[in-house]
Amino acid sequence: MAPMNDEIEISAQLERANGLLERVLAEVAKTPSTHAIFVDAGYVYAAAGRLAVGTEDRRAFDLDAEGLIDALIDKARTIFADSRLLRVYWYDGARRRIHTVEQQSIAELPDVKVRLGNLNANNQQKGVDSLIRTDLESLARHRAISDAALIGGDEDLVSAVEAAQGYGARVHLWGIEAAEGRNQAEPLLWEVDSQRTFDLDFFKPYVSRRTVATYETAGTARPSREDVRFVGAQIAAKWVAERGRAALVDLLPGHPYLPGSVDQELLVEAEKLLAYSLRGQSDLRRALRDGFWENLQTRY
Questions:
Q1: Of 64, 21, 16, which Cα lies nearest the Cα of 44?
Q2: Helix (H) or strand (E) holding 81
Q3: Using CA atoms in the order 46, 52, 57, 59, what is the torsion angle rounded to 10 degrees?
Q4: CB 43 within 8 A of CB 201
Q5: How far apart, in whole angstroms, are the C-alpha atoms of residue 217 and residue 89?
């Protein structure tokens, strides 16, 4: 009789194990997917600058990082439709890892984490790839993300991709169109789960050649947050009048984020009305969007 009892016990253990497995799978199925965006700023400045204005020299052009980040978030929302955003990681270099004014303004943006490597005497980033690997691996290991959108091109990122994939995360490589040839290493392209390239039309609104004359040099005083908020509301009223209620209904589900094209249009129109540049001024940009959204929501 002992063998039969053993068989009954083994069968009971299998049933308990199967039941436990079914409960775990059910919990996993209910857990929402989460994605994060990892941006190698050095790659973005070099590739986007070369594509849009013909130079990699940061001193020769302005990058509207805030507008670009919002456009990337909007793009990710479309691609990862059933997933929520954890945050955007922005990796850059700085002397002695001390934030520049521009990096400070980026760090103040909602859902953005700035991580700094060092910048050597030749203005080359050091330690950025290792920061990306550390974050990717840690987030994947703790199941904090299911998908990672990686914007970069260095072959040294291969180990970061492999580390994240080893814990079950999928890594999607996003790149910037190259004028000729490639600006992403082939081994990196081989390792990722998917690839996507953004063209000039995507980046052009966020890159502009730097000129000596700016709004500030004309002596225009910095507007208050309330002034900017009011302008945002004005633009929203005009936007609805021109596009109609259907466009408003399409826009509202994305709150608090605006599609990149709408956000860029809002920025340009506001700068005309204010005669003042809002580039790099995250507090005023937020006030502008707040005014825009507040006006739209009163109309719904």
A1: 64
A2: none
A3: -130
A4: no
A5: 33
Residue entry with tokens 């633009």:
235
What residues contact 10, with CB distance under 8 A and at least 6 apart?
none
Residue with tokens 């109609």: 244
Using DSSP bridges, classify how beta strands 125-126 and 112-119 pair: parallel, antiparallel or unpaired: antiparallel
Average pLDDT, the chain: 84
What is the CA angle 50-40-153, rounded to 5? Answer: 65
Identify the sign of the CA torsion 144, 150, 154, 159: positive
Three-state SS at 92 = strand
Spatial distance between the Cα atoms of 41 and 45, rounded to a whole number of angstroms: 6
In tens, the pLDDT along 212-267 reads: 444 444 456 788 888 888 888 888 888 888 888 788 788 888 787 888 778 888 88
Residue 64 makes CB contacts below 8 A (sequence gap 6+) with: 205, 206, 207, 208, 264, 267, 279
pLDDT per residue as tens digits for the range 41-66: 999 999 999 898 888 888 788 899 99
